Amino acid sequence: MSALAKMVKVESKLFLRDSATVLFGVLFPTALLLVLGMIPALRESTPETGSLRSIDVWAPTALVFGMVMIAVQHIPVVIATYRERGILRRLSTTPVHPRNVLLAQMIVAFASVLVSSALMIFLAWAVLDIAPPERPFEFVVAVIAGYAALLGVGLISAAVVRTSSAANQIGTLLFVALMFFGGAFLPRVVMPDVLREIGEFIPPGLQALTAAWSVEAGELTATAGGQPFWPQIAIMAGIAVVTSAIAAKLFRWE
Amino acid sequence: MTALVVRNLHKRYGQHVAVDDVSFTVEEGEIFGIIGPNGAGKTTTVESIAGLRTPDSGSISVLGFDPIKDKAEVRERLGVQLQESSFPDAIKVYEALELYSSFYRNPADWRELMELLGLAEKRNTRYKALSGGQKQRLSIALALVGRPKIAILDELTTGLDPQARRDTWSLIERVRDTGVTILLVTHFMDEAERLSDRIAVIAGGRVAAVDTPEGLISQSSAAQQVRFRVSRPLDKRVLSELPEVSSVEIIDDRWRVTGSGQLLSSVAGALARAQVVAEDLRIDQRNLDDAFVAFTGRAPESSAHTEKKDA
Questions:
Q1: Does residue B218 surpass a pLDDT of 80?
Q2: Hey, are the CB atoms on B103 and A94 less than 8 Å from each other?
Q3: Size of interface A-B (CB pairs under 8 A)
Q4: Best residue in B52, B53, B62, B99 to probe A by mutation, most A CBs within 10 Å?
Q5: Residue A81 with chain B: CB contacts under 8 Å
Q6: CB contact, 8 Å: B76 with chain A?
Q7: Is the pLDDT confidence value at A7 over 90?
């Protein structure tokens, strides 16, 4: 087996042994959605949500929660720990390039987001009767582009912080900021237009995810001055490219 | 054949000169020790050999390859056990070995290595749950898993209990017997003396001396003393005229001979030629600690705490 494949295998095992991350990053978003879905008020439609229930419009936020958790909290902490404890340094004395560690981390993180999303979409449909994504292709593209952009932001943090506790603090700040635009504190459907428009530039791009999941919800959360779907994807892809380049430039092995 | 050549290595960090001018040569198949006070430049020297630091000037050749220019070639052939490096807490022993063996073109059988290092029973144990000695053995195993021609072992037994240290030493000798050249960095004089074929003493970023452990001890010309009683009267000049002897004191029938170099053997030889039997022969044995003090002007670090990086 190639070094990268072996590394992905080992990093996957390490990921699964880290119960806090599995719990919060992979299972918590689904649990959150299911619990909120039990609240009667959220199972009714409001003037803002038209014919949809509040929970239908809000569901993508739970997905964003898992994505942000893994990209800006989990990965930077793992890499900072590897740096702090000389694990990267040790790897850099072997023929394998430590770049493979990052690549392996990204692959594992991405797989975990796919699992987390699939689980959530399935249980949301089975338990809460939330329809699965109406535009599956656009949805997958929005998840990949949005997640790549988030990961880029996370990797900048991972590139420079020297200790795991610093990575944790930066991760928490980023988490709060990103989740604000991700609709965790103020659902996007009730956000003023200016916040909604800024939100189209904030990874992972809640508007694109919402619009791909449910056309009707997407129309409710869009703004008159906002970007259409594909330009939003282009913005996320652009953020992913720029942040990854910055992260690669700043990266320190020790 | 020459395994390693370091020539006029110089490395500074800002204003601080970590390595001033270090040169030495390591022959294939030897255990070459590097000793010196903290901050003398030992770690920076081995980090430069491992390609982790770019020297400001001077050259390094690892089996004919440059650690910076021929990174890939050097990394295939050089196994490294570094200070301040470790492995993820949750990784299991066999996973770490299997993973690291996948990095090399022609790896050793990691299962055999696991047996050799006495880790077979711990194959499913997570790194975090290993004892200090087991962690150290794993680290050595991982340094050897690529079938290196040269292994760098930096502060090999720091933090180990006496039994684990002795076990590690015999392990290193077995590894050397398989043909691996070993560069051993240590601040334990007993370790350097016991294992090394030759030792470089580094002080103030320079090589103060390179020799066998015995050579260093006698080269350091620290005064030695031999005390004994003689079975019958003997002319003082029999000993005082020996080149190694600096003074001879006789109190009643007790002789006290002070000198340097191969003092004991030359005194014993002279006594034998005079057909005198020495009784209660005692030698005030000089060891590497004394040589260390003589070359560096400082006492060897006796505490077991880890040496900090030179940076």
A1: no
A2: yes
A3: 63
A4: B99
A5: 88
A6: yes
A7: yes
Distance CA B165, CA B169 (A): 6
- Mutation site for A-interface testing, chosen from B87, B93, B95, B103 by largest number of A Cβ within 10 Å: B103
φ, ψ for residue A58, nearest 5 deg: -85, -25
- Round the average pLDDT of chain A to a whole number and report it: 89
Helix (H) or strand (E) holding A158: helix A136-160
Rounded Cα distance between A168 and B93, Å, is 28
Contact B85 A14 (CB under 8 A): no
Evaluate whether A163 touches A76 at the Cβ level (below 8 Å).
no
pLDDT band at A146 (very low <50, low <70, confident <90, very high): very high
CA–CA separation, B309 vs B84, rounded Å? 9
Q: Cβ contacts (< 8 Å) between A17 and chain B: which residues?
A: 90
At which residue do the structure tokens 């390490």 appear? A14
Does pLDDT of B306 surpass 60?
Answer: no
Question: For testing the chain A interface, which of B84, B87, B102, B110 should be mutated: the one with the most A CBs within 10 Å?
Answer: B102
DSSP code string of B221-262: T--EEEEEEESS---THHHHTSTTEEEEEEETTEEEEEE-SS
Q: Is the dihedral of CA A216, A222, A223, A227 positive or negative?
A: negative
Distance from CA of A80 to the nearest CA of B (A): 12
pLDDT in tens, B11-67: 999 889 999 999 999 999 999 999 988 888 898 999 999 999 999 999 999 999 999
Going from the C-alpha of A161 to that of each of A76, A91, A156, A166, B194, the distances in angstroms are 8, 18, 9, 6, 42
Which has the closest alpha carbon to B285: B184, B239, B217, B232?
B217
Q: What is the pLDDT of residues A196-227, one digit of tens each?
A: 888 888 999 888 999 899 888 888 888 877 78
Q: What is the mean pLDDT of residues B194-219?
A: 90
Kindly state the DSSP code that residue B212 receives in the 8-state scheme.
Answer: -
Question: Any alpha helices (H) in chain B, and if so which ranges?
Answer: 42-49, 71-77, 93-101, 110-116, 132-144, 162-177, 189-195, 213-219, 237-240, 263-273, 288-296
Distance CA B143, CA B46 (A): 14
Give the single-character DSSP code of A133.
P
CB contact (8 A) between residue B50 and residue A93: yes
d(CA B83, nearest CA chain A) in Å: 9
What's the full length of chain A, in residues? 254
Q: Is the peptide bond before A228 cis (omega within 30 degrees of 0)?
A: no
Report residue B12: phi and psi, to 5°.
-125, 150
